[in-house]
Amino acid sequence: MILATLLLSFQLLGRAEAFVQRSWDESYALANAKIAQMTVDEKVGILTGVGQFNSRCVGDTHPVDRLGIPSICFQDGPAGLRLVKGVTGFPSGINTASTFSRRLMRARGVALGEESRGKGVNVFLGPAMDIMRNPKAGRGWESFGPDPFLTGEGSYETIIGVQSTGVQACAKHFVANNQEHWRYGVTSNLDERTMWEVYGWPFLRSIDADVTSVMCAYNRVNGTSSCGNSDLLGPKGFLRENGFKGFVVSDWGATHDAAKDVANAGLEMEQPGDWIVIGGGDFNNLITGLKPAVKSGAVTTDRLNEMVGRVLAAFYHLGQDSGFPAVNFDAQHSDGSGSKNLHVSVRSDAHTALVREIASASAVLLKNNRTTFLPAAGAKETIRGLPITKSRIRTMAIIGQDAKMPNLSCNDLNECNDGTMSVGWGSGSNSLEFVVPPVDALMSENAGAATLATSLSNDLNAGANAARDKDVAFVFANAMSGELGFYSVVVGNMGDRNDLDLWFKGGSLIERVAAVCNNTIVVIHSVGPVVMPWSSHPNITAIVYAGAPGEMTGPSLVDVLYGRYNPRGRLPFSIADKEADFGTSIVYNSLSGFPEINYTEKLLLDYRYMDANGITPRFEFGFGLSYTTFAYSGPLSIASGASGTRAITFTVTNSGEVPGTEIAQLYLAFPAGAGEPQRVLRGFEEVPLGVGESRSVTIALGQRDMSIWDVVRHAWVVPPGTFTVTVGASINDVRLTGTF
Ligand SMILES: *[C@@H]1O[C@H](CO)[C@@H](O)[C@H](O)[C@H]1NC(C)=O
Ligand SMILES: *[C@@H]1O[C@H](CO)[C@@H](O)[C@H](O)[C@H]1NC(C)=O
Ligand SMILES: *[C@@H]1O[C@H](CO)[C@@H](O)[C@H](O)[C@H]1NC(C)=O
Ligand SMILES: *[C@@H]1O[C@H](CO)[C@@H](O)[C@H](O)[C@H]1NC(C)=O
Ligand SMILES: *[C@@H]1O[C@H](CO)[C@@H](O)[C@H](O)[C@H]1NC(C)=O
Ligand SMILES: *[C@@H]1O[C@H](CO)[C@@H](O)[C@H](O)[C@H]1NC(C)=O
């Protein structure tokens, strides 16, 4: 008891001892005082990684011991720390987007920050903020989907959360980094309005969140390398014009030009510091590197000092000079071996519970054809569909490779798909140390109540045999994607997915099971939209789209299936029947080397393209069912605030039989002639409600939310005319409409 109390107070002390955030002015003053005492070598050292095989973290800077400046540690990545033991495997960005919950977005950021800090990581390499321009884009799952507003909010909350722990966030990848094929040199050609309203928008939100670092991308933009692009990084470029005060770091090996060119264009730091085949090694080059460029005057001392100042100011801004834990792991030994791995666990019950909650909150119930029985006394029981009533199930089958434990020691990039898919592959994966697969969680929930048959492969005959005439068959299937890395191929996919099909004939498996079991419950683990031609099969009573939910995948799903957690996740993208419905493509082949990709669809991604082309998707953006029902009541009250802002108020009621959370969504239609998509997401709110409870909800519209980027005035402009606001449960499930 005394011991427990002591531990608790240490924990409280640890939190209380946190850090003191300083103003940027004060931080720059401290930085400049150090810079005044530094040699050129020391300055260059702070701006250059120590090399891919020398760093203890995934990237380290050179310390300046005599001035008390430590090595700054950078570590992957957006879904939890990678190459490190004793950490939590968090839900992916795309699942976090599915929650449509600022509370959970921020809580995940805080937890990621706490684990980074506990490991001594100064800069957490996330959030990933790349727009899912095409649904097959390999790294789409790391970020928050195709909608700029939702991506912006996910990014903002993550950064606020991470930086609240004194850890720096790194907004990435700047910018228009939207496919894996050819990524080391592809150019994304996009017009100014598309830049501001779509791909740049989340970066504006990251600056709103006071992010201390931004990572420039591998690709070129308009023909110029992102990391050497003064339109993006320079003093008059996108970031600085919008008030960014921190530093820009290259993606690992994303520097392709001489040091003087990238430094003068606006890059501050190169990682990992040396040449890594795909690029890099610019700053430390003996002839064309940063030091010779400073000696020759090609890079001025003022610019050099500015570069160092930005790196150090970010460090002082978050108080990392005092009380920040030293690095206690060694990314060179990801198995935990070696004398530099000090075996510090930063896992906690609170983080595990949060991961489970986010995973449940991100599970999207796409279909539920429930048949019930009302006993003389007590609550409704489910005969078919969800939630499962345990006493009604005598025989059960669990089918599909995706239900079982994956190989946890696949490789450091999780380039495997041999069990359940809880996170994609690449530097955005996490350590995969403690996955609880669906089959284990279902078996422990069932605890012998029903007779169980399993077929934990995608063998079609074995799956059908296990499912035949069972009271319920759970069938699992997945689709995965990841980072190109060093041209890695996983089951024939080189980063980007080859198609929108489920892997390993998952669709056929589902159809074979549905043909023999009239209570087939489908669970999809996928990094993005998949085609679901079978979704209306009458024997498929329920479909749960569970995304890439992180290490508590099994328990979080069972909570939903058995009704302990009322589903409330919503699709952060549309699910359509073919890729052409999305209006963009991945460029796989290019005879002339690195291709040019023209973003001719401009603002029209996903639902915006479908609206413009009269396409009704199978499941629309923002869609997701609940075990209860919600009623909206108006009229919409639209109040004007300071400088033209608006506050939209309405009431939501839980009109069903169990407590639940509604995700109220606001879509805005701009005045005709403004050149905007038919409607765009501009607000959302999670509304938890007990049975019969009502709540008034207010969603604010800021000025930027009602503006277009005017390419003549180069400014945000609220277009004249009538705006239409719709509020509802998805983009197509409109409940209330108003105008202003
Ligand atoms: C790319 O070039 C187009 C056409 O010249 C221009 O409108 C746009 O602003 C440029 N994009 C960026 C991100 O600088
Ligand atoms: C897991 O993957 C590793 C690395 O590919 C391999 O050596 C090992 O045999 C695999 N384990 C199992 C159980 O398949
Ligand atoms: C479902 O199948 C079971 C057994 O195969 C059968 O008893 C039941 O009547 C069927 N229910 C429906 C609605 O088809
Ligand atoms: C639904 O399942 C039953 C077995 O329960 C099967 O007899 C029937 O053919 C199936 N229906 C379809 C459309 O596959
Ligand atoms: C729902 O299930 C019933 C049988 O319980 C079936 O008749 C009906 O076709 C199903 N509806 C859908 C939309 O699948
Ligand atoms: C993009 O436009 C350029 C210039 O018009 C053209 O050469 C290139 O082929 C286009 N790219 C693609 C993938 O169509």
TrEMBL record:
Q: In which pathway does it act?
A: Glycan metabolism; cellulose degradation
GO BP terms in the entry: cellulose catabolic process
The enzyme's E.C. designation: 3.2.1.21
Q: Where is the signal peptide?
A: 1-18
Principal EC category: hydrolase
Name the chemical reaction catalysed here.
Hydrolysis of terminal, non-reducing beta-D-glucosyl residues with release of beta-D-glucose
Q: Which SUPFAM superfamilies match?
A: (Trans)glycosidases, Beta-D-glucan exohydrolase, C-terminal domain
Keywords of this protein's UniProt record, alphabetized? Carbohydrate metabolism, Cellulose degradation, Glycoprotein, Glycosidase, Hydrolase, Polysaccharide degradation, Signal
Q: Name one GO molecular function term.
A: beta-glucosidase activity
Q: Cite the InterPro entries for this sequence.
A: Cellulose_deg_GH3, Fn3-like, GH, Glyco_hydro_3_C, Glyco_hydro_3_C_sf, Glyco_hydro_3_N, Glyco_hydro_3_N_sf, Ig-like_fold
User: Quick check: keyword ATP-binding in the entry?
Assistant: no
- The Fibronectin type III-like domain is annotated at 662-731
PANTHER family tied to this protein: BETA-GLUCOSIDASE, BETA-GLUCOSIDASE F-RELATED
Report the family membership: Belongs to the glycosyl hydrolase 3 family.
Write down what this protein is called.
beta-glucosidase
What organism does this protein naturally occur in?
Pleurotus ostreatus (Oyster mushroom)
